[in-house]
Amino acid sequence: MPTEIFLQSPLDMHIHFREGAMLDLVAPLSAETFAGGVIMPNLVPPVADLERLEWYTGEVRRAVGDHVFTPYMALFFRNYSEADLAAVRESIIGIKLYPEGVTTNSEGGVKSVSDAEQTMAMMQDMDIPLLVHGEVPESFVMDRESDFLPTYDELAQKFPRLKIIMEHITTAAAVKLLDRYENVHATVTLQHLLITLDDVAGGLLNPHLFCKPIAKRPEDRDALLHAALTAHPKLMFGSDSAPHPLEKKECCGCAAGVFTAPVALAMLAELFDAHDALDKLQAFVSGNAQSIYGLTPPAKTVHLVKEPCTVPAKYGDVVPIRSGGEIGWRVV
Amino acid sequence: MPTEIFLQSPLDMHIHFREGAMLDLVAPLSAETFAGGVIMPNLVPPVADLERLEWYTGEVRRAVGDHVFTPYMALFFRNYSEADLAAVRESIIGIKLYPEGVTTNSEGGVKSVSDAEQTMAMMQDMDIPLLVHGEVPESFVMDRESDFLPTYDELAQKFPRLKIIMEHITTAAAVKLLDRYENVHATVTLQHLLITLDDVAGGLLNPHLFCKPIAKRPEDRDALLHAALTAHPKLMFGSDSAPHPLEKKECCGCAAGVFTAPVALAMLAELFDAHDALDKLQAFVSGNAQSIYGLTPPAKTVHLVKEPCTVPAKYGDVVPIRSGGEIGWRVV
């Protein structure tokens, strides 16, 4: 049984860095162990034009500091002109579509996918990937993702050369959809490989495991875990790590998001080790993303050993997953 | 359209009064508007012998004070002897069965229903109703009640003269089960007539609407509401009002329970009025319970008028349902 592993250029293909003091807190925590990450654009206002993109990219680079870490910037979806897209093309990894009101700071999102097709057609022609928060906000919370899946069918067929990423998938049905279309890919978070709604609300209510899309049923978690542990080539790790200060979590009106980035690699090593699948971890946390996006991340070797470490109770005022608990692996 | 209603002897057939300072806070709030209630026995230790029953009955009566309010005491299920049952028979309305570990203070509950059958047979012979928290604790949280329903089938058939109350039902399937057996009845809470899991976790997470059994799907809520609004004769109002101090709700590890008792009648009047069903409210909040249990509550007339009132932010340190919000009806 391996007691250490060397990961080459691990990537977090879905990460919330926020801005200001929160950015300064969380960006270095990701940059310590990852070689790059896809930075989500749902600020207030969203990152939805070249000027704001350039400002935010600069902010992220400043916060990352001297760490070897490439921020892959995502633009917030709106209906863009061809000139808009041409201007940002070289500065972004893709464009992130949020249905209106579906999660934190998605209020300026898309009301109807059909209104967005002209921009999608141009994205297809310009080879700009479409990253999608795939939930129907009006649906019952446990059905929001499965109700959105027909939209993926529609998009995949209508734009067969558009690279579509189903972000943070949470259902067995979404895993199945990966095999239906060549141009459909997905990210999955750490928590959705580990938990179900039982962990959020089955015993005492745990606000720190509350996120959108909400954790689903055991059979959904099992399907996601199986796909990750077998390094399904169309599935990438994307933490969706989403920091909120303690007072926004342990309150009435708890914000959605689980903060996992600083411990994600250690917990993934623990999880893959527990399932005798450590040999699949490199593909899951980097190789698949490189193939799907056609990117070459900076060289960075992360050394993990099978030794217990204790998770801090908090990073600043943000409570991480498994706060105060133990992980069986640690980054050296 | 009626703008006032007079309810005769409204009853809350499932209520948590706790003990000590919390009892002193909440018992008068129920006793102000209800003529009686079924008092749950899940204290620590549970109310599971004559001595503790007599002590708790005295505590409840003391806390109720001069209000016209009859506490109908429920005993905590364990395997009792015939002598035990004979001794408590006149002091209780029924015996409450909790599967082990299913909710607040249910740790001493029943591990297997088959172990409990001897006591149930004696209860049937002595005409002692069986009140059941019908959830399978090991099941996925959304399935715990539906997975328990076959146990009701089994009990109803094995003990056809045992009065069985499915407490705080939350699913359409449980409503259907009411019509399958003559000896099966149910209570339903205020919140399960109003909310779904969407209200708990569909937007921001709301710990004050978190309870066990957890609120289910829209079609479940609709079936419960239809049964209540039509005053299904086997369905009784039981608030399951469960006070927890604020710090046990807005925290990591939020306790299960919604505090509804002080505003329950006003909110029920509002709800039934909104559905043009005020004429069914008397049966739902008193008549059905009287028929099912064969009880005659003390005379008490509660006058409600269609005038807005504001719900207090807190009662003591307990946050009620619709805290700080408005109700379209109020008790005069």
Structure notes:
2 copies of one chain form a homodimer. In chain A, helix 1 (20-33) crosses helix 2 (50-64). Chain A has one domain (15-258): TIM Barrel, CATH 3.20.20. By secondary structure, chain A is of the alpha/beta class. In chain A, 35% of the residues lie in helices and 15% in strands. In chain A, strands 2-3-4-5-6-7-8-9 form an 8-stranded parallel β-sheet. Chain A has a 3-stranded antiparallel β-sheet with strand order 1-10-13, with helices on one face. The longest helix of chain A is centred in the N-terminal third of the chain and has 15 residues, at 50-64. Chain A is globular. The interface between A and B is medium-sized, with 27 and 27 residues.
Query: What is the CATH C level class of chain A, in words?
Result: Alpha Beta
Give the biggest beta sheet of chain A: 8 strands, parallel
| Mean pLDDT level of chain A | 96
Helix content of chain A: 25-40%
How many helices of chain A? The count is 12
CATH superfamily of chain A: Metal-dependent hydrolases
CATH architecture of chain A: Alpha-Beta Barrel
Gyration radius of chain A, rounded: 18 Å
Instruction: State the CATH topology of chain A.
Output: TIM Barrel
Query: Major sheet of chain A: order of its strands?
Result: 2-3-4-5-6-7-8-9
Number of strands of chain A: 13
Taken as a percent bin, the fraction of beta residues of chain A is 15-25%
Q: How many domains would you count in the coordinates of chain A?
A: 1
Elements of chain A, N to C (H/E): EEHEHEHEHEHEHEHHHEHHHEEEE
Biggest interface and residues each: A-B, 27 and 27 residues
Q: What are the low-pLDDT stretches of chain A, counting only 5+ consecutive residues below 50?
A: none
